[in-house]
Amino acid sequence: YKSTTTFTSIKLDQNGNPFAATTTWTSSKPSIGTIATSSGLFTAVSKGTTTITATAGTLSTSTTATVTYNPVLTSISISPLNSGIRFRTKVTFISTTLDQYGETFATTTKWTNSNTTIGTINTSGVFTSKSKNGTTIITGKAGTLSASTTITASRTGAALVALSEQEPVVTTVPAQEPTTAVTPAGGTIIE
């Protein structure tokens, strides 16, 4: 997924000897993977299977290339950041979790609150303030990654800070380099 490999062709004459001829390459589903017409360079685009066809003169042969990947959770961010809330009101925190390719990673975020005298947070990320002034730290954790922000409760309620004015809090881990392999009888690009 999001990697490349090169297909090659072997052309033989009627006696089984190497034969010089130009090979033209095509992919039946460019939305899964594209292939350079002359070089055979295959680029994985999305998960799925496509048929790769090599044509030389009037002859052609085909194989399949299956694009798969194993997503790895590499970052989590949460919002809103550093917000204020009035007593006995609610705010919903949202987490964004991404894989090594920057795509959404489906996982559950576990929410915690550092000071339950200020308020509580449920499993859906909804924080409910109590009748006490103060600040608490909200943490969203997915796998081994976490991101935190603060929320301040007061009788009048501080205005929420505009999200566009804040830098997101992001925790990341290094992405793993993909490995690519193609098998002759039914290509599979795997990570």
Gross morphology: rod-shaped
The fraction of residues assigned to DSSP E strands is: over 45%
Mean pLDDT: 84
The radius of gyration is 26 Å
Short description:
This protein has 191 residues and is an all-beta fold.
Task: Provide an overview of this structure.
Helix content is 0%, strand content 47%. It has no helices and 17 strands. The chain has strands spanning 4-6, 24-27, 33-35, 41-44, 48-56, 59-67, 73-79, 83-86, 90-92, 94-99, 110-113, 119-121, 126-129, 134-142, 145-154, 169-172, 187-189. A 4-stranded mixed beta sheet has the order 2-5-6-17, with no helix packed on it. A 4-stranded mixed beta sheet has the order 8-15-14-11, with no helix packed on it.
Topology:
Layout: E1 4-6, E2 24-27, E3 33-35, E4 41-44, E5 48-56, E6 59-67, E7 73-79, E8 83-86, E9 90-92, E10 94-99, E11 110-113, E12 119-121, E13 126-129, E14 134-142, E15 145-154, E16 169-172, E17 187-189
Parallel strand pairs: 6-17, 8-15
Antiparallel strand pairs: 1-4, 2-5, 3-4, 5-6, 7-10, 7-16, 9-13, 11-14, 12-13, 14-15
Structural features:
about 190 residues, mainly beta, 4-stranded mixed β-sheet, 17 strands, disordered C terminus
